Amino acid sequence: xxxxxxxxxxxxxxxxxxxxxxxxxxxxxxxxxxxxxxxxxxxxxxxxxxxxxxxxxxxxxxxxxxxxxxxxxxxxxxxxxxxxxxxxxxxxxxxxxxxxxxxxxxxxxxxxxxxxxxxxxxxxxxxxxxxxxxxxxxxxxxxxxxxxxxxxxxxxxxxxxxxxxxxxxxxxxxxxxxxxxxxxxxxxxxxxxxxxxxxxxxxxxxxxxxxxxxxxxxxxxxxxxxxxxxxxxxxxxxxxx
Length: 241
Known about the structure:
Layout: E1 11-15, E2 18-22, E3 30-35, H1 42-53, H2 55-59, E4 63-69, H3 73-86, E5 88-89, E6 92-93, E7 101-103, H4 108-112, H5 124-134, E8 149-154, E9 160-166, H6 174-190, E10 204-206, H7 212-222, E11 234-236
Function: Thiol-specific peroxidase that catalyzes the reduction of hydrogen peroxide and organic hydroperoxides to water and alcohols, respectively. Plays a role in cell protection against oxidative stress by detoxifying peroxides.
Binding site for substrate: 149
InterPro entries: AhpC/TSA, Peroxiredoxin, Peroxiredoxin_AhpC-typ, Peroxiredoxin_C, Peroxiredoxin_TDXH, Thioredoxin-like_sf, Thioredoxin_domain
């Protein structure tokens, strides 16, 4: 399973919008790559509606959305049509999902990204064999090949910058995913840290000094500044674009 700072595993896959080559098709872009447990499920439906309505907001941050589950393309398409034609959620209706959703029936991409539950680390053939040997006594969870609610924020160099995991029962906070993307981009652009629950326009944190000399200089400046109390927590105004 990849970790933060690792290269995002490359892949070529069928999607609802055609074949995707990652990362080649996303050069120069940030990618929000996320998995969902299954089509035609209630929590996933609400997540996709919110992702779809916020797609333009992510694009304004130079980020593209890319979904995945182990369902077929036919299932994806039928589900997305049902969302558009039949679902009304929080006054949102007739929602078109215009980002690609990967068909990963082989589980190859999901396994490479650690998106499968621990009890489902088997091939379909192994799962069938285990089920037959158990006489049907093992739980469904032990045979699950559903992907969990994993989310990866991947930068334009195809490096994994953040990973978020949610259980089957709970939907993601899509606004938090956007906020985290903005915070990571703020670090890259201005080399500043962001405090808890930071939002664009709020004060940012000046990174701590890396040498003893720099530390002493910082301590001296603290005496003349109200923005550093104590020396290891220095804030400054956010530089707006």
